[in-house]
Amino acid sequence: MSYLFIVLTSVFSANALLVYGLGVCPAFRRERRGPWVHLAALAFVNALASILFWIVRSFALAPLGLESLDIILYAVLIAPLLKYLSRFIASSPAVSLVRMGAAMDEAVTSCLVFGVALIATRSNFSLLEALAASIAACLGYWLALIVLDSIRERLELSDLPASFRGAPALLLSAGLMAMAFMGVDYALLRSVAR
Amino acid sequence: MNKRRKDILFENIAAAAFLSVMALLVASASFLLDNVADRRDSSALVKFAGSSSIGNPLLHSDSNFRRLYPITRRGRLLYGSVVALGDRLGQARIAFLFAKDGSLDSAGVIGAIPGDLAFSREGWFSEFLGKGGDFAFPMSKDDLRKADTVSGATESFRLTSNVLERLSRSVRQAASIRDKGED
Amino acid sequence: MEKKSSPFLPDLMLGSLVGLCPVIVVSGNFASGVIVALGILFCTLVMSLLMPALRSLFPERLRAPLAFGLAAAFTALYAVLAEAYSPLLSSLAGIFIPLTLVNCIVLATLRRGIRTEEATTRGVILKSFMFFSLLILVSAFREIAGAGRITLPMPGTEAHILTLFSLPPLRLLTAPAGGFILIGCLAALYRFVQRRLLGRRIS
User: Fold this and answer.
1) Closest residue by Cα to residue C135 from C24, C1, C16, C43
2) Residue B30 forms part of a structural domain
3) How confident is the model at residue B154 (pLDDT cuts 50, 70, 90)?
4) Domain of residue A20, residue span
5) How many domains does chain A have?
6) pLDDT above 90: percentage of residues in chain A
7) Hey, which residues 49-88 in chain B have their CB within 8 Å of chain A?
8) Hey, which residues 5-24 in chain C have their CB within 8 Å of chain A?
C-alpha cells in the first residue's frame, strides 16, 4: 500500500472526526485553539500512542495470542507513559511547551488518540504505515476542526431560529461536511496516489 | 527502609497485583471463549467443505482471520479459514477454501449485515475478483456502466483483494512447512 | 455549556453533547448500537459500584490509574464476551467496543468516583440508563428510516434482519453524515422543549 494512499485516505475518506466520529465532544466545545501548538501536541501524542500500541500488540501480545489484553495494556502502560511525558514537557520553562504539554495531557485519554491507535493497529499496517496513518488522521481531524471553527464564526452572525443556534447548527454543518468528505472515493485516491 | 516508604511500596504492589488479577481474568476468559470460536469456525468449515477431516488450526494474528485449518476433501488437501470482511457499509463472515498452491477453491457466506452488502453475494467473489484491478477507477462514462469496472472501484474490492492476498500467502507458507515436515 | 439540567430528559447527550463519538457512527445499525450501548452501560454501572471500594482501599495517588486500568479490564472482558456472543456484531461495532474505555460517560464516572466521597451511584445509574435508552432509540430510528430494516442483536454467526420497507425513505441516515444531522436536529428539538416547557435556556 503506498504511503500517499494511506495519508490521503486517513485525511479524507476515513476522516477521524467526520467519518469515524472520533473526538466529537471537544470539536463542538467553544474554545480558542492555538493552531500550531495544539496541532503539534495532537500529532505527537497520536504518533507516539500508535507506535507504542503497535509495538506492544505485535511483539508482546500477538505471539502469545493475547490480543484481547491490548485495551488493558493501553490503560496501564501506554496512557500513563504518555501522561508522564506530557507533564514532563509541560514542566519546561518555554510557554509554548507548557501549552503543548497541557494539550497532550488532555488528549491522552481522548477517544481520538485511542481510536486512531486502534485503527492504525488493526488495519494490518506495517510500523511506518501505522505512523503515517496516525499523523495523517490527526491532520485530517485538524483540517475538519479548522473548517468547523470558521463555520461556527459565520453561524454566530447568522439569523437562525433560537433552538438551532450554537451546537445544533454546527452539527448540521458537520453532517454536510461529512457528506463531502465521504464523497472522496477510495478508488479515486488510489488512482491519485498511483 | 522507613515505615512510610514500606507502606508506599506495599500499596504499589497491592495495586499492581490487583490489576494483574484482572488481566489474568480477562486472559482466561479470552482463552476459554477462543475454544468456543475454534469449534464454531471448524464446524462451519466442515459443513461448507462437505468434509469430516479437519486438522488443528495454525494461528495468525491478522485482524481479518485468526485460524487456518488443513482440510482433506476427497483425498485432496485444502486450507480453510473463516474471514471477517467489512467496510463502512457492513460486515460479513465468509468461509474460504484454498488449494495448496494458494489459489482460491471456493467461498461461502456464513453471515452478513446488511444482507445487500457486496460481500454477502457469493457470486461476487468468483465473478469479479481478479478483474478491474488495474483499471480501478472508471476513466469514462462508458466505463462507469460496466459491472466489473464499478466493482473494481469499490472499497469492498480493495479490501477483499488485500485479505485474499494475505490469506493466500499464509496458505502457501503453511503448505511449504507441511511439505518440509513430510520430507 | 449547560446551565441547568433536568433529570427527566436525556440532557447528557443532547444538552451537553457528551459521549457522542459512538452515537454518530454505530447508531447507523440497531444491533451495533445495542452492543455498544450495553458495553457503556456495563462499564459505567460496574465502575460506579466499585469506586467506593476503590476509594476506601487505595490512597488518592493510586486511584486514577487503578480506576482507568480497572475500566480497561472490564471493557476488555466485555469485548471478549461480545465476540463470543456474536462475532458478526462484534466486528460490525469494530473499534467502538474498545473505545468504551475512553467514552466521556465512563470517564466522567471515573473522575467523579475518584474525587467525591458522597454517594453518586444513583445519579450515575440514572444518567447511564438515559444515555443507553437514547442510543438505542436513535439506532432503531436511523436503521428503520435509513435502510428500511432492523438488524436484531441475536447470538451466533448469522444475521437476523427484519425488512420493513423495500424503498427506505432516508438513505443518508445510516451514514455518519446522517448521524450528525439527526443529532443536530434532536439537540435543537431538545433546546426547544427545554425553552418552551421548562423555561430553561441552553447556550
Assistant:
1) C24
2) no
3) low
4) 3-28+35-193
5) 1
6) 47
7) 59, 61-64, 88
8) 17-24
**B-contacting residues in A 114-133 (Cβ below 8 Å):** 122-124
Predicted pLDDT at A32: 60
Query: Residue B172's domain spans which residues?
Result: 41-182
What confidence tier does B137 reach under pLDDT thresholds 50, 70, 90? very low
pLDDT digits (tens, 9 = 90+) for C87-117: 989 998 989 999 999 998 899 888 888 877 6
> What is residue B106's three-state secondary structure?
strand
Q: Is B130 on the interface with C (CB under 8 A)?
A: no
Calpha distance B67→B173 (Å, rounded): 14
Here the cell at position A63 is 505471539
pLDDT value at residue C181: 94
Q: Do B22 and C69 touch (CB under 8 A)?
A: yes
Residue A192 β-bridge partners = none
| Of residues B19, B31, B62, nearest to A76 (C-beta) | B19
Nearest-10 crossing angle of helices C60-85, B3-49: 10
C-alpha distance from residue C98 to each of A60, A64, A69, C38 (Å): 19, 20, 11, 13
B12 in a structural domain = no
Q: What is the pLDDT of residues A44-96, one digit of tens each?
A: 999 999 999 999 999 999 888 888 899 999 999 999 999 999 999 999 888 88
* CA–CA min distance C76, chain A (Å): 6
What mean pLDDT comes out for the span C143-172? 86
Report CB contact under 8 Å: C65, A80.
Answer: yes
C-alpha cell at A170: 454546527
Domain ranges of chain C: 11-198
The structural domain count of chain B equals 1
Of B30, B88, B115, the CB nearest to C159: B115
Predicted confidence at residue C2, as pLDDT, reads 42
Q: Is some CB atom of chain C closer than 8 A to the CB atom of A25?
A: yes
Q: Is C95 helix (H, G, I), strand (E, B) or coil?
A: helix
Of A126, A113, A146, A122, which is closest to residue A47 (Cα–Cα)? Answer: A113
Q: A164 vs C188: CB contact, 8 Å cut-off?
A: yes
- Subunit contact A176:C177, Cβ cutoff 8 A: yes
Torsion over CA of B106, B112, B116 and B120, rounded to 10 degrees? 0
